[in-house]
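Sample intake sheet
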Amino acid sequence: MALNNFELECSICNEVLADPRALPCGHSFCGPPRVCLEALRYSTGGLRCAICREEYPNLNALNLNPLYGIRDLFPATS
């Protein structure tokens, strides 16, 4: 099964995922050094998924593990 660019695109920056991280709902966004995950932070400090709007009040973006299988398909970006 081949993936197309849309399936590998961050819905925050609209670029190909860079060092992707997945929320518990399964939606993926760019990790550091891009600031896409920080854009999901809401006023009380948790994260809210930009796609399904699921809230994770105790989740810190820095604690999300990289999706190595996807990350390793692409050259490192900054």
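Comment: The CA atoms of residues 20 and 69 lie 10 Å apart. Helices lie at 68-71.
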